[in-house]
Amino acid sequence: MKTIHEIEITTTEVILDRKPITVQESGDKMLVELYRRYVGDYPKFFKMDTLSRLGFIAAELLLKQSAISGEQSVDAIILANRSASIKNDTDYLATISNGNYYPSPALFVYTLPNIVAGEIAIRHHIQGETAFYILDTPEQLEQIIQSTLQAQGTTQRTALAGWCECSEANKFYAKIQLLRTI
Amino acid sequence: MEQLIEQLKSQIIEALNFEDLTPADIETDAPLFGEGLGLDSIDALELIMLMDREYGIKLADPKAGKAIFQSVRTMAEYINANRTK
Fold it and tell me: How confident is residue B65, by pLDDT bands cut at 50, 70 and 90?
């Protein structure tokens, strides 16, 4: 398996293909800063929860790199994390905690972690498999990615795969790669 | 009616998290779904909640939604005729 491009996003840093991207903001505001600088034409971004914003921005930057270097399209999305959608689950719970509440459909829809994979697939018209695993460590994901992609025999496949974690407000981490089977 | 239309635009921006939009960016007669603002089915649910929360209107007939949510103006007209608060 070959890594074509790689992005790592912490709450204060963005590293794309081992080169840092300068950012002024941190945490959630940094994701908005990156959206405004590199995307700007997808207002649905503002409706997303932090986990989806994180995965969305990571995919945007990765796939821009991929387009620049003329690579083929993505066949599959394989993501994982440890905390599922706990941050948005907690936010949603807070909105329905008193007796006289109006539950928000827009918040509720993000109470599943796999929504981030769907958001990326919709944005980039990726029609292959999408999967989101809840795992203890990123190392466990490597085995899953290998077995998933290699199960397709000799066909060359490209996947957007990696760790996408947001456990609470302004606490997130993503390391996502564009991988190709050799 | 014009005051209600402007108020409704602000409430739509807030309810749907359109952080980059101002009321002036929303055309009063433009389609809310498909073209125009490009809203989806989840947004439709948010608009139904907004009408209940802000104006005391409960939409009993889902089929009526298509005509009510055609544009900001059609929403405002419906609210004006049916509001309980």
Answer: confident
The parent domain of residue B72 ranges over 2-18+39-82
pLDDT over threshold 70, residue B2: yes
Partner-chain contact A46 B19, CB within 8 Å = yes
Cross-chain residue pair A46–B17, CB shorter than 8 Å: yes
Segment B26-55, tens digit of pLDDT = 899 998 887 667 788 889 999 999 999 999
Read off the CATH number of the domain in which B64 is found. 1.10.1200
CA-nearest residue to A101 within chain B is B53
- Domain contains B32: no
- Look at residue B29 and tell me if it is in a domain: no
DSSP state string for B39-71: B-HHHHHHHHHHHHHHH------GGGHHHHTTS
Q: With 0-12 CB in 10 A as exposed, 13-18 as middle and 19+ as buried, what is B8?
A: buried
Query: Hey, of A35, A47, A88, A101, which one would you mutate to test binding to chain B, going by the most B CBs within 10 A of its CB?
Result: A47
Whether A6 contacts A181, CB under 8 Å: no
Banded model confidence at residue B23, pLDDT cuts 50, 70, 90: very high
Q: Is residue B26 part of a domain?
A: no
CATH code, A92:
3.40.47.10
Radius of gyration of chain A measured on its C-alpha atoms: 16
User: Is it the case that residue A120 has pLDDT exceeding 70?
Assistant: yes
